[in-house]
Backbone:
């Protein structure tokens, strides 16, 4: 069984640019959640996709957007990058769109640095 | 608003000593609670979870946690710490059926 994978591992961008991060969910999982983890902080929820539809969103501006594909992999897009967007971006997959008992399995993350 | 507080930013223990990491939550309903561990450069690994029933839950790697509703706490414990337990530990509560709210984490250092 393949776990959650994310690409790229590291990324360096400059302010104002756009970035796309990718996530492949664990086999059989139909739900993907994205989190931002700034240095020294806990992860903050960005949004969740369930069966290709956004299922919930945290307190992030619209320049953070996402997609989920029919194979349940997902992308996180960030436009007009700001210095504060520098963080570890974590993807988590789970089975089922709702219910706290559905364990979220996390990928290793993508480290984004904005200069 | 729902929140999770981990009051200890850093904790240092000697190898073989016992460990307790504190977690307090603010949540109106019966919470789903989790402890995750994050090693440097790694994602989050689930140690244990509480949904209902027995308030003492067992997890992987010899960890356990106790849910105390009266204190709004879900503290993580281990009777004997190993050097490989050095990592960052996060407590989280499941909120609104789709997202986890995390605490700010506790970094565990293990003295040889």
Residues:
């Amino acid at each position: 069984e393949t776990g959650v994978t994310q690409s790229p591992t590291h990324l360096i961008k400059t302010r104002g640019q756009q970035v796309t991060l990718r996530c492949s969910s664990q086999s059989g999982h139909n739900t993907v959640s994205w989190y931002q983890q700034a240095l020294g902080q806990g992860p903050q929820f960005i949004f969740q996709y369930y069966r290709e539809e956004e299922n919930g969103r945290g307190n992030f501006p619209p320049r953070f957007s996402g997609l989920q594909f029919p194979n349940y992999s997902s992308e996180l897009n960030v436009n007009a990058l700001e210095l504060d967007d520098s963080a570890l971006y974590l993807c988590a997959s789970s089975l089922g769109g709702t219910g706290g008992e559905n364990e979220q399995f996390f990928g290793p993350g993508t480290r984004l640095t904005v200069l | 608003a729902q929140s999770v507080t981990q009051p200890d930013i850093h904790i240092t223990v000697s190898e073989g000593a016992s460990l307790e990491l504190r977690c307090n939550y603010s949540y109106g309903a019966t919470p789903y609670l989790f402890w995750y561990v994050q090693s440097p450069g790694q994602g989050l690994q689930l140690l244990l979870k509480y949904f209902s029933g027995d308030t003492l839950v067992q997890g992987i790697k010899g960890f356990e946690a106790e849910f105390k509703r009266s204190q709004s706490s879900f503290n993580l414990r281990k009777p004997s710490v190993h050097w490989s337990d050095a990592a960052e530990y996060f407590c989280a509560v499941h909120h609104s059926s789709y997202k986890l709210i995390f605490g700010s984490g506790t970094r565990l250092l293990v003295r040889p």
Summary: The two ends of chain B are 41 Å apart (CA to CA). DSSP finds no helices and twelve strands in chain B. The interface with chain A takes residues 4, 32, 36, 41-46, 49, 51, 90, 92, 94, 96-105 of chain B (CB under 8 Å).
